[in-house]
Amino acid sequence: MCRNDLNRTTLTIDLSCVREGQVTIDRKLPAGGFVNDSDLCSEAARSAAGDDPPSHPEWNCTPVVPPPADQFCTGKAIGSACTVELTYQGKREQHQGVCSQVFETEHFYYQGRRTATRQVIRCDPAAMTPRSYAPATWWQKLTQ
């Protein structure tokens, strides 16, 4: 769905397009395994070396080896073909993909904004669809 918006900062009419509907993929990946940033890990190491109890024992500083795989890539090598099952607007669909190793992030707040990362193997599209945009005239934006 594409909509026209009046940008009062730049005094332009902007066309913005968004995909309607929700895509749901149940990858069955484990919930944990995120590795905290180096500052938190060094703080955890300092507290473990001293007599102080760890400030947060749930902090993880060691990555899971081997990285977990989603249900579509379990037992497959990176680069292998896979088929992902998804639900789009209540309808189940299957799409071909390739098993790839990616980083996932989780954001949280502890003494400032923090980011924890983990590596996982998941079924992703073999090739991303390129998006191309052409500038529209003010008349095209206005009449759309």
Distance between the termini: 11 Å
Overall pLDDT score: 83
Number of domains: 1
Summarize the main sheet. Answer: 4 strands, antiparallel
How many helices in DSSP terms?
2
Which class do the helix and strand fractions yield? Answer: mainly beta
What percent of residues are in strands?
A: 35-45%
Quaternary state reads single chain
Unreliably modeled segments: none
What is the string of helix and strand elements? EEEHEEEH
Q: Within the largest sheet, what's the order of strands?
A: 3-4-5-6
Rg computed from alpha carbons, rounded to a whole number of angstroms: 22 Å
How many beta-strand runs?
6
Approximate helicity band: 10-25%
Please write out the topology.
Layout: E1 2-7, E2 12-17, E3 23-24, H1 38-49, E4 81-88, E5 91-109, E6 113-124, H2 138-143
Task: Tag the structure with descriptive keywords.
144 residues, 2 helices, two-stranded antiparallel sheet, mainly beta, flat
Walkthrough of the structure:
The chain is mainly beta and about 140 residues long. The protein has one domain. Helix content is about 10%, strand content about 35%. The chain is built from two helices and six strands. Strands 3-4-5-6 form a four-stranded antiparallel β-sheet, with no helix packed on it. Strands 1-2 form a two-stranded antiparallel sheet. The longest helix is centred in the first third of the chain and has 12 residues.
Short description:
12% of the residues lie in helices and 37% in strands. It is mainly beta and 144 residues long. The strands form two sheets. The protein has a four-stranded antiparallel sheet with strand order 3-4-5-6, with no helix packed on it. A two-stranded antiparallel ribbon has the order 1-2.
